[in-house]
Specification:
The chain is α/β, with parallel strands linked by helices. It contains 8 helices and 7 strands; from the N terminus they run E-H-E-H-E-H-E-H-E-H-E-H-E-H-H.
Length: 258
């Protein structure tokens, strides 16, 4: 079994919006329309890349129709459910934009935040813009489990991100180039981007909407407990990473020294 690394081709567009989703048949069409409406107002070339993570409902049929009506909406179907981190990694490997923007497929992230995120990235000349949800529209149990896991991650890793669970973020494609993929990677993306050599990250408030249709895929078990376990794995990895610096002599230099 080999590790999956994010391999990228040459960028040919300005922006790639990357949306991992599973069983969001009832939300995907409306979200696609909102994204299209926002992007039409921007003087940028773009695509929206939907990553279907093994949906069992009519999500794929909806994506077929969305793509038929507008080829800028592309989709990739994973053979089975691999998880959000894997879906994002596949998106990062196949996206063609110079700027990547990620958001959830359940409609809770607001596409109206896209222009401000891209503007912040460009004007402030940073490498990533990470959103934080000013007014969260989630059930109490989800909010509290997320707050505990986020606080523990920040304390343990000493990498302080206000709302690392917020999927709304924009960043330059090179931030994730050659990054190694593992389960739970999406929970630590700002820290991993810094570890990848891109420390300039700006945090801004974004809107968060109530889920209109469907059921959330996250709860205590797969948000709090799994998140806590992943933190220990990332701490181990962080402690074992080496970044050797070397000066290699050339044949010309060796001749001079002789």
């Amino acid at each position: 079994m080999s590790f999956y690394h994010i391999r990228q081709e040459r960028a040919t567009l300005d922006v790639s919006i990357i949306v991992p989703l599973k069983d969001e048949e009832d939300n995907v069409r409306e979200l696609a329309d909102e994204i299209s409406e926002i992007m039409r107002r921007m003087d940028m070339t773009w695509e929206c890349l939907w990553i279907d993570d093994g949906s069992q409902d009519g999500t794929m049929s909806a994506l077929h129709e969305i793509h038929r009506l507008d080829f800028r909406h592309r989709y990739i179907s994973l053979r089975r459910n691999f998880g959000q981190s894997a879906a994002l990694a596949v998106g990062f490997s196949n996206a063609r934009g110079k700027i990547f923007l990620t958001m959830d497929g359940d409609g809770q992230n607001d596409p109206k935040d896209i222009p401000h995120m891209i503007e912040t990235l460009v004007v402030q000349q940073c490498q990533m813009v990470q959103g934080w949800r000013r007014n969260r529209n989630d059930r109490f149990i989800r909010r509290i489990s997320s707050r505990i896991a986020n606080g523990f991650r920040n304390l343990a890793t000493r990498d302080y991100t206000r709302d690392v669970g917020c999927s709304m973020r924009a960043f330059r494609r090179e931030c994730v180039a050659n990054m190694m993929v593992f389960k739970g990677m999406h929970r630590f993306l700002p820290m991993l981007v810094r570890m990848n050599g891109y420390p300039s990250i700006v945090e801004i408030p974004v809107h968060h909407r109530p889920r209109r249709r469907g059921e959330t895929k996250y709860g205590i078990r797969n948000r709090l407990f799994v998140g806590l376990k992943d933190t220990y794995g990332v701490l181990w990895m962080k402690s074992r990473i080496v970044s050797p610096e070397a000066r290699v002599s050339s044949p010309e230099q060796e001749k001079k020294e002789e």
